[in-house]
Amino acid sequence: MRKTIIYVLLSTLLAAALTACSSGKDGGNSQSHSDGTPGTNIAGTTSEISETSEASELSVRFGDGGGSFTLYLENNETAAAIARHVGSADWRLPIYHFDDYDGWEVMQYYDIPSRYEIPSNAEMVTSEQAGQVYYSEPNRIVLFYQDADIAGEYTLVGRFEATEEFVAAVKENPVLEGWGNKIVNICA
What pTM was estimated for this model as a whole? Predict the structure, then answer.
């Protein structure tokens, strides 16, 4: 009986991991931080993006089972560094605070592990459009899913098409049962 339960649990976890990012890839091999929170995929998933090539877009899923949305990247060092890092290992980033900070009604932020070095050319931004994605030091991606007037030092990384489907996916991203946070999956 015990073996059956363990087998079913492992099968379920494996199935969830394989569908985490995109079909047809070896993605989804995520690792947890020492505090038990979900982390980025560091299993060495290979991708078509090499150290020298630059992607112009990334695939993003809100939640482990969410639909895929295209993030169209800006042509700058920050976006290129993010694409390069995601190209070497898909990211499965946690959203720890999703409804208890200033501006939560219009934006979400995702913490990137500190082991990734990302250059920044931050400028003061006072007005954001729905679908815009920024990098904010230290190692944070900020997504505006509604138009907003929130001042901050940001580097524009890219844009999503802010369709109704996209906004709904961001808002309805489920809280992971047992974790208390949400997940965003970013793939090359």
Answer: 0.71
Q: Tell me the CATH architecture of domain 2-187.
A: Beta Barrel (2.40)
Quote the CA–CA distance of 138 and 187 in Å, as a whole number. Answer: 21
Cα distances from 120 to residues 44, 102, 157, in angstroms, run 25, 23, 10
Q: Domain extents for the chain? A: 2-187
d(CA 118, CA 137): 9
- Centroid of chain to Cα 38: 12
What gap in Å lies between CA 188 and CA 177, rounded to an integer?
27
What span, in angstroms and rounded, lies between the C-alpha atoms of 176 and 147?
27
Tokens describing residue 106:
């219009």
20-32 pLDDT, tens digit each: 444 433 333 333 3
Could you give the angle at the alpha carbon of 133 between the alpha carbons of 130 and 135, nearest 5°? Answer: 145
Question: Do residues 134 and 112 lie in contact, with contact meaning Cβ atoms separated by under 8 Å?
Answer: no
